[in-house]
Every structure is written in structure tokens, then in C-alpha cells.
Write a structure and sequence with these properties.
- By secondary structure, the chain is an alpha/beta fold.
- It contains 5 helices and 6 strands; from the N terminus they run βαβαβααβαββ.
- It has helices at 39-46, 63-76, 99-115, 128-145, 157-168; strands spanning 13-19, 56-59, 80-82, 150-155, 185-191, 194-202.
- Strands 3-2-4-1-5-6 form a 6-stranded mixed sheet, with helices on both faces.
- The termini are far apart.
Length: 210
Amino acid sequence: MVKKLSDTHEEQTVIEFLRHGETTAGKCFLGSTDVSLSQLGWQQMKSHKLSGDYDLVLSSPLKRCREFSQAFATDKNLPVKIENEFREIDFGLWEGKTSAELWEQDREKLSEFWNDPVLCTPPEAESLTDFQKRVIEHYYKWLNELKGKKILLVCHAGVIKIILCEILGVELKNMYRLTIDHAGLSQVSLWQDCPQINFINKMPPVDLKC
């Protein structure tokens, strides 16, 4: 069982989740494949104009998150930590393929995945339960280490959805019903270890075009 936060903590902890922007890979199943942000992706993330009032920047190790995190932390004179366990789920043989391509190649398996991603893992992919376990364990680990702090976590849609499902008590198989867009910003605060979701998938104030 995952160890959760202590029952005695009375300080407020705030964690903001920033999904990476658009990447050079385009729209496809993009998990463990390591690609950079596109020019638009950089613009999407910068357009939030984050204040820099964080105590720490946490980041996935993948370039589409890490490169922005390091640049932002340097600009705001903030410490930055790379957490390997906050990388995106590995989609196995589906990496880099679009839904349209997979629909033509094996629509039955794709349909099964959308209907129940817990039981229907893509070929040679990481299972959703294994993904959940590593993300949630390290989510609580960092919250315990950073009580009373404000944290920016730059990561992936899958990581954010897993954590939101944990907080909301949503079944894992329903996680893909949540929408987290490129550069979507979400915020959770904890007071006496009780989490409250303040907003989900807040988009940049500027409508950016390619």
C-alpha cells in the first residue's frame, strides 16, 4: 500500500501540474519516445507567464519537459529536480503511431484499449497499473518531502491524469475521460493533508497559432 501524507501536517502545500507543449512528433501515441518541443510548444508553455514563486521545479526526464523546466528554473533562479518516475507511460509498439494508423492496422485491439485500458495493454507496452504505481508512489514521496511548499511539476498528460484520478477517487480505467491539453495547467492544494483541486487544464491566455 502506498504511504500517504501524515495526519498531523497543518501547512498548506500547493502543486501545479504543467503539461508539456506541442512536440516535433505531432499527434501520435507519444510516451517513452524522447522528442523536443516544437516552436509552438515553447510558445504555449511560455505564454502562461508563470510568476516563479515556486520553491522547487520538478520535471520528467524527457526532453519535452526537461528542457523547459531547466530554462524556466534558470530564469527564475529556482532549484530544479529531475524525477525519472514522472516520465510518460511507454506505449510499446504503438509509440509514434497515430490513432488513424492503428485503426487501419488493428482496430479491434485499439477499440479494446479505449474501452478498458487497464486490461488491454498495447503490445510490449507498460501496463496502466504499473504506470499508476510508479507515479503515485513518487507523488506522495515528493509531497512528504516538500510539505508546506509550492511546487511546479512539468510532466505529461498521463502523469497528471493518474494523480487527478487518485485525488478524485476515479477508477483507473476511466482516466482517459479526462482532458489535459498541451500546456494545460492544473493546481492542487493540500491543507491538513486533504487535497483540493483548484482548477484543471487551464490554458494559456493567448490563442497561439502555428
